[in-house]
Structure to design on (94 residues):
């Protein structure tokens, strides 16, 4: 059986001087939030860029134990969240 290739993005290693994101317990959120980008589920930690209602945030789900733990960043403008998402993927933020 051939090895399956990952289709979603993977994070690069965090840079020494990376920005530390503020991870919080999930908020009550607007009903129309949708993930627009995500990292591969083959890793223990999965990140999603979520947008809705003119705002956006990043959701982090750690799947190490039986029950996944989810945290979210504060809400930002969509443009600001997309810049932060790019920084996360490139190792400039965690």
């Amino acid at each position: 059986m051939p090895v399956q290739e990952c289709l979603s993005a993977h994070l690069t290693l965090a840079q020494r001087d990376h920005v530390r994101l503020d991870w919080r317990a999930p908020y009550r959120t607007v009903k129309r939030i949708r993930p627009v980008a995500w990292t591969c589920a083959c890793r223990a930690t999965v990140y999603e860029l979520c947008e809705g209602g003119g705002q956006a945030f990043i959701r982090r789900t750690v799947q190490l134990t039986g029950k996944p733990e989810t945290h979210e960043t504060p809400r930002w403008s969509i443009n600001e969240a997309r810049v932060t998402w790019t920084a996360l993927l490139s190792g400039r933020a965690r």
Notes: The mean pLDDT is 90. The helical segments are 78-89. The two ends are 36 Å apart (CA to CA). Residues 40 and 46 are 7 Å apart (CA to CA).
